Amino acid sequence: MQYKRLVTEGQIPVLGLGTWLIGGGQEPDYTDDKNAISTIKNAIHLGYTHIDTAEMYGGGHTEELVGKAIQDFSRKEIFVTTKVRNTKLRYNDVLQSVKESLHRLQTNYIDLLLIHAPSNTIPISETLRAFDSLVEAKLVKYIGVSNFQVDQLIEAQQHTKNKIVANQIEYSLLTRNTGRYAENKDMETKTIPYCQQNNIIIIAERPIERGLLLKSHPLLDKLEVKYNKTKAQIAINWLISKQNVVTIPKSTNEKRLMENLGALGWKMDKEDTKLLDEAQFVS
């Protein structure tokens, strides 16, 4: 696995496992738990040591599945990211949410805790005061945000004693400056440059946009042949080639999990990266 630096002493795998819809959407789904746990375990065996989840996923059940899956592994070898939903960002609510997440994950600390999305009603100062207390108590190693734009990031940085090390946002060859499902905007032109300049990791969601980037496209078709790589591998490689960008594709298919790992360990020529930077992709 390749890594990128978080802060002086920390690092994050460039390729992680997204878990949205494993164990349910907004509500828990218990019908495929055995396979879900097996899938997460298998992904870790293959090399996916960063597991990304959230208290919202499956109404908390996804965290339970992750917790069961990671018990067979050394905890220090697994990087767990989870998120506090934006309706629970009051000081005491944050503390309670993390207490419950730790219980579901069956661990005594979280590697990276994110604010799942900004709140329009709860002051960021109150939320980050709780985050700071969790770091001080060694229940959380690193803190970050998700779906934050530059002005929101700047405000957040003013209200924490700890460095905001990551911002998880929509970003892919297909999704550049307008989010497809959240309120992300100006990701490529503003948010990512700001994060790169301020040593904040970008965790790119949906790197192949649930298969939409697997459709035929003249440039991707050409690069598939040139590099003997699949469209998914090219799309992921393009992301992780960028400064401070990592990604978290979600898959429960072993063949696809292995395919995604094939995005590591090689580089495209600069002119091809530039062509992808400038290309227009449509769904």
UniProtKB/TrEMBL annotation:
Site (described: Lowers pKa of active site Tyr): 83
Gene3D superfamilies: NADP-dependent oxidoreductase domain (3.20.20.100)
InterPro entries: AKR, Aldo/ket_reductase_CS, NAD(P)_OxRdtase_dom_sf, NADP_OxRdtase_dom
Binding sites annotated in the UniProt record for substrate: 116
Record domain NADP-dependent oxidoreductase: where: 15-279
Molecular functions per Gene Ontology: oxidoreductase activity
Annotated protein name in UniProt: Aldo/keto reductase
